[in-house]
From TrEMBL:
It comes from Urochloa decumbens. It is found in: Mitochondrion. It catalyses: (S)-malate + NAD(+) = pyruvate + CO2 + NADH. (S)-malate binds at R196, N464, N509. A divalent metal cation binds at E285, D286, D309. The active site is at Y143, K214. One of its GO terms (biological process) is malate metabolic process. Residues 120-300 form the Malic enzyme N-terminal domain. GO terms for molecular function: identical protein binding; malate dehydrogenase (decarboxylating) (NAD+) activity; metal ion binding. The lineage of its organism: Eukaryota, Viridiplantae, Streptophyta, Embryophyta, Tracheophyta. Residues 310-578 form the Malic enzyme NAD-binding domain. Divalent metal cations. Prefers magnesium or manganese. This is Malic enzyme.
């Protein structure tokens, strides 16, 4: 495992520059021709191009291109630049968002989503340019929290298909179905079964919206080529009675498959996509808890896949927890001393606890004693209260962290103790919410946290969307004051504490990690995604913030820096894949050449392979 200090950026020395220039000359495909500047060979002309959002650039087609591609006379004669197109779109957006609302129940964010989606349907390159140049404003529109509204209303919002739909009725046909997708190369798939969308529950086929939103961020943050991404919905039915009775619902109106029948559908899907695209990376998204862990363990050693709810959320939380230690003025190696109360025992909550305990154990020596010591730092509270070994039918994934009888006596706690009772007795350094219960961190809970053993108690209200956040930053800072550290899953504004002081609202968003994990895996050619690669990603995010920022309570960077963060995280993933001998290389860069790259050269390698939204040269070629 690369140490945290190795992840810190260094200046590029002249000898390293010379070495990189030598590599550039040896590998022109990877370095000299950036991902976004590769020419595009088309087998279509005229109106077919204008109707294809992958290739349409509207009035930005030059006159030469119009002649070459059979477009002269099909567009207004004035040729405009891509920036002029964006300026016109942004002017229209400002004017139209007020009128794009579909009645009083249609919020302004949803109106923005409608307008952006129309642009996505017309001109994909321009869509991503707008998104990337305004990422702080539009990430909450294409992703959480607005994507939750989109999923809840997807049948009414549906205008044209995006992605692929596999259903239980397609059993036996998936291997042929994957060849209906037009792209011969797919680098990234985000797949959901719609069973647990954000904190909104079972939304069935409407869950495709979360897969689309995640891939928008893979493109914007990681520079994955948008022509090589694929959102997927696996429709095995829904247990949402409202959808089962809705005549406009677009999915299967039958109850969900369970047991071996369910697993067989997912197995068939995985075999099909990896048969057509052997090097694809599959991210599982918003599967209900009982399947999230089981499917992760079933596939992770065979396929290039990961579960963002389990592993991505855990990585972002670990980065924040390490940042909270730094904000207390302590070294990150003190992390194993933190007492952490976790509210929520679903896939995200248990995923965070597992990953955090492994991080602690590694810092303590990675032996049996270290793991037992790390386990003892967590108190997990679910809907039934504190989880102890006295509970009947403990979830197997939560069992290792159930509090032991011997521990409970001197703590004054018992099975089922309430969250406020646990906080009062434990006096934790951190309370971490992944419960999907809005307002769970009540005034009484926050008052109890005043007696924390830490001088700077940390509140992680990580549930999405916004309405499910365990508390708001305003509520936290009002009770705990300026020393509190606050992070949430969805965006909140900073809090003015008066006298020129600011209570920083950190967004612990998975988008800080999953794009870099995907990109790093792609560019390393790693056969699987290991715990070490995920840990390297989390540690690089934790070390990204400067010391002076962390001491102010800023433990996550602003979304505006997401492209740079992703580049650094991806480079850390590549280097860890090389260190673990999992890397097989990408295109002409084989594993041996990857191993010879320095940290700075690895970052440059990643940067050059990130797609950017520029109009490429288009060449027409007959079939």
């Amino acid at each position: 495992m690369a140490s945290i200090s190795r992840n810190l950026r260094r200046s590029l020395a002249p000898d390293r520059l010379r070495r990189l220039h030598l590599l550039l000359s040896q590998h022109p495909r990877e370095y000299v021709t950036a991902e976004c500047h590769r020419p595009v060979v088309l087998h279509k002309r005229g109106p077919d191009i204008l109707h294809d959002p992958w290739f349409n650039r509207g009035t930005a087609f030059s006159m030469t291109e119009r002649d070459r591609l059979g477009l002269r006379g099909l567009l207004p004669p004035n040729v405009v630049s891509s920036q002029q197109q964006i300026d016109r779109f942004m002017l229209d957006l400002t004017r139209l968002q007020k009128y794009a609302r579909d009645g009083p129940s249609d919020t302004y964010p949803l109106a923005k989503w409608r307008i952006l989606n129309r642009l996505h349907d017309r001109n994909e390159t321009m869509y991503y340019k707008v998104l990337m140049e305004n990422i702080e404003e539009y990430a909450p529109i294409v992703y959480t929290p607005t994507v939750g509204l989109v999923c809840q209303n997807y049948s009414g919002l549906f205008r044209r298909p995006r992605g692929m739909y596999f259903s239980s009725e397609d059993r036996g046909e998936m291997m042929s179905m994957v060849y209906n997708w037009p792209a011969d190369q797919v680098d990234m798939i985000v797949v959901t079964d719609g069973s647990r969308i954000l904190g909104l529950g079972d939304l069935g086929v409407h869950g495709i919206g979360i897969a689309i939103g995640k891939l928008d961020l893979y493109v914007a943050a990681a520079g994955i080529n948008p022509q090589r991404v694929l959102p997927v919905m696996i429709d095995v039915g829904t247990n949402n009675e409202k959808l089962l009775k809705d005549p406009l619902y677009l999915g299967l109106q039958e109850h969900r498959l369970e047991g071996d029948e369910y697993v067989s559908v997912i197995d068939e899907f995985m075999e099909a996509v990896f048969t057509r695209w052997p090097n694809v990376i599959v991210q599982f998204e918003d599967f209900q808890t009982k399947w999230a862990f089981r499917l992760l363990q079933r596939y992770r050693k065979t396929y290039r896949m990961f579960n963002d709810d389990v592993q991505g959320t855990a990585g972002v939380a670990i980065a924040g927890l390490l940042g909270a230690v730094r904000a207390q003025g302590r070294p990150m190696i003190d992390f194993p001393k933190q007492k952490i109360v976790v509210a929520g025992a679903g896939s995200a909550g248990i995923g965070v606890v597992n990953a955090a305990s492994r991080t602690m154990a590694r810092m303590l020596g990675n032996n049996e004693v270290a793991f037992e010591s790390a386990r003892s730092q967590f108190w997990i509270v679910d809907a039934l209260g504190l989880i102890t070994e006295d509970r009947a039918d403990i979830d197997p994934d939560a069992r290792p962290f159930a509090r032991r009888k011997a521990e409970l006596g001197h703590q004054g706690l018992s099975e089922g103790a309430s969250l406020v009772e646990v906080v009062k007795k434990v006096k934790p350094d951190v309370i971490l919410g992944l419960s999907a219960v809005g307002g769970l961190f009540s005034k009484e809970v926050l008052e109890a946290l005043k007696d924390s053993s830490s001088s700077r108690p940390a509140i992680f209200a990580m549930s999405n969307p916004t309405k499910n956040a365990e508390c708001t930053p305003g509520e936290a800072f009002e009770i705990l004051g300026e020393k509190a550290i606050f992070a949430s899953g969805s965006p909140f504004h900073d809090v003015d504490l008066g006298d020129g002081k600011i209570g920083h609202s950190n967004q612990g968003n998975n988008m800080y990690l999953f794009p870099g994990i995907g990109l790093g895996t792609l560019l390393s050619g790693a056969r699987v995604i290991s715990d070490g690669m995920l840990q390297a990603a989390a540690e690089r995010l934790a070390s990204y913030m400067k010391e002076e920022e962390v001491l102010q309570g800023i433990i996550y960077p602003p979304i505006s820096r997401i492209r740079d963060i992703t580049k650094e995280v991806a480079a850390a993933v590549v280097r860890e894949a090389v260190a673990e001998e999992l890397a097989e290389g990408y295109r002409d860069m084989d594993a041996r050449e990857l191993a010879r790259l320095s940290e700075e050269e690895t970052i440059e390698y990643v940067k050059t392979n990130m797609w950017s939204p520029v109009y490429p040269t288009m060449i027409y070629k007959t079939d």
